[in-house]
Every structure is written in C-alpha cells, then in structure tokens.
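Our preliminary data section would be incomplete without showing what the modeling component actually yields. Below, a chain of 243 amino acids is followed by its predicted structure, encoded as tokens that our downstream tools consume directly.
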Amino acid sequence: MRYGDDVLGVPEVCSSVVHAFDDIDAQAVALIGNALGGALGRQLELDEKARLLARLEAALQTTRAQARQYQDAALCDALTGLPNRAHFLQRLREMCERDDLADPFAVMFLDLDGFKQINDRHGHATGDAVLREVANDLGTRLREGDFIARLGGDEFVVLAPGIREGTRNVASIADDLQQALARTRPVEGVCLGIHASIGWVLHTPGSSASSLLARADAAMYAHKKRRRTGGESRAPGACVVDT
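Predicted structure:
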C-alpha cells in the first residue's frame, strides 16, 4: 500500500487452496492495496494536520496570555498593584471624550506630606510600605466605580465619576480620605500617620485630560501650601506596636 513515495504497508491475502489466485486476482488485490494506501495516507495527513493545528492553537493561546500579561504589566504599578500613569491618562482621555455623561466627574490629585523624611529616617522599605498603605486606604474608602492610580513617587490620582452635588461632595470625599490616611498605624514596626495634600477639579465640557490633571495638580499644591502655613491640624493618634 503506497501513498505517494511512501510505503504504508503490504496487504496479505491467503488461501488454503493451492494456486487459488491467478493474475487477475493479483491485479485486483493490487488495486485494493492502492486504494487502501490512498485512503490511509490521506487519513494520516489529516491526523498530522490536526495535531499541527492543535499545537498552533496552544502556542497562540500561550502568546495571547503572555501578551495580556505584558499589557497588564505595562498599565500596572508594580509596587502597589494600582493602575499607573499611562493607564490613568488613557481612562481620563476616554472620559473626556464621552458626550453621554449625566453628571460631571472629578479628578483628585493626592501627594503625601513629608514622604522624603519617612524614607530618610526609616528607610525605603518603610517608604514602600507607606505607599502600599495609601493604595489600600484609597481602595477601601472610595467607591467601587472610582478609578485609583499611582502616578509615580508619592503621587496618587482618583477619577471619580457621577459627582452629583458638585464641589461640596468632592470636598467631603477628600476630607474623608485625609482622615483615613492620618490615622496612626504600625508600618514596618514604626507608628506613622500618613498625611496628604489633596486637590481636585470638576470636569467641564471641552476640558482635556492634560488640562484637568494640571489643574488638579495646581489645586493640590495650593492645599499643601495652606497646610504648611499651619492652616490645618495634623495631630497624631495613639499607636501600639507589637514587640
């Protein structure tokens, strides 16, 4: 039995009768063998193609999974697990381009006070732990629909949709965040209250992502300046560190 140049097998036809087959029988068997060889060869080809397709599909799925991992990594802050600057700007641009928003959204810009001193006094491991604490507090205190990101360093931003009561509502959110962060807690064996300056702006039609972020940044620095001049109290609370 042949398929192309390949020999796939040899059919054997037996009889207990001596000289049972003549030349015509031999030719018939040869024709049957050729037909069987063709059918078997085509089936083997199909099986091989199926195996090849299965391997290609598995390789494609692996490639897609790796691509998703790389994409996620490109849009994620490795330290806190929050979205990073690129991811935040992408989401902010999408929000600015929407024309079906029933309520305005706010951009909140948060910068930690005295973060360099924490690093200098307690070490970068404690500083990293503080940043993770901030990420956790933001995720706990804000709504499920709010988009939280770390811009870099000790800067965080929040995209808060559906602000129905305008600036007063954003102010209450910012005040709640400040109080939640300022509670004294053990961080890497050190009692710390995390103090932050927060600025915010409300989106108005026609505002671009870059202008909103710049305005929120400026509002944050204005808030930080007021805090430095003693306009707000930053009294620490009690903290007990297990030994």
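Strands lie at 2-3, 6-7, 106-112, 147-152, 155-160, 185-187, 190-192, 196-202. Residues 23-74 form the longest helix (52 residues). Preliminary results of this kind motivate Aim 1 of the renewal.
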